[in-house]
Amino acid sequence: MTERPPLSARLRVAALAAHAALLAGLPLAGGLTGALLALLLLAPLPGLWRGRTYTYAWASMLLVFYIAGLLVNRTPLTAALAVIGALEFLALLLFVRARSVEARRAA
After folding, report:
1. For the range 22-29, what are the long-range contacts, defined as Cβ-Cβ under 8 Å and sequence gap of 24 or more?
2. What's residue 68's pLDDT?
3. Do 81 and 29 meet the contact criterion of CB atoms below 8 Å apart?
4. pTM here?
């Protein structure tokens, strides 16, 4: 029987998958403006990829503005991207929480 990966590892994968979906979907939803917004989402990508808790924390604050902007447009694609953004927001916050619990248990 194999052991399941820790919760933080699974949340990290979920956050990276949602981040990639947003990066791919923003140019489709918003044209040139969406492409420029997607470029701004590249800023936290190295820290997210390396699993840095600090980056996960500040990226969640950045994501709130993206979700709000997507909800204003009210097209089916932007609504789907807003849901993906909300899922990423949850994954980011839960990752930070799980990481801190795992660090406390290890200490």
Report:
1. 22/66, 22/81, 22/84, 22/85, 22/88, 25/77, 25/80, 25/81, 25/84, 26/81, 28/77, 29/70, 29/73, 29/75, 29/77, 29/78, 29/81
2. 93
3. yes
4. 0.91
